[in-house]
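re: ur question from earlier - yeah i can do the single chain one, its not a big deal. heres the input i used so u can compare w yours
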Amino acid sequence: MKTIHSKANISVPNDVTVTIKSRVVSVKGPRGELTKNFRHMDVDIKYNEKKGEITVEKWFAKKKEIATIKTACSLIENMFTGLQRGFKYKMKLVYAHFPVNVGIKDDGSHISIMNFIGQKVKFEVEALPGVRMHKDQKVPSEFFVEGNDLENVSRTCALISQSCQVRNKDIRKFLDGIYVQEKGHIVDLEEE
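and the output i got, formated as tokens:
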């Protein structure tokens, strides 16, 4: 059974400008600019400047295809949040015996993981575009990964976490690794 027409609206914040051309959404905000391509999704995306809202709609869709409307809306809303407040993930170094060391490049685009479970091998991870890393000054076993694009920030954290997985051992006992401890924003609402 197909639904003839379904749609969802997103209100555009005041400090953000949006341009949409052939399902490529470009957003400019106080923290920079992001562009996302929605051509792989079979939806119509329209921007009404007078009302200040984006409409995502789909015609003659099955139930599973209607889910792409909410997905597209969520991705666009994440772009707004990233350009207004940014995304900041706190990662924690967890170890039982061998202390894991982390070296972050000065510009924050590269991380080296050393002495993981006493291994001599260094694990190198390059940050994705628009993502920066820096160490926590107070706690030596924590560092931050931050940027405007939620997808790139979370993927960088996943790459770091996956680079130092325990292999050939019982992972219930060997819990060493680098894990995401906290998810938040660079600019908190209380500071504004």
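The chain is about 20% helix and 40% strand. not sure if urs matches, ping me
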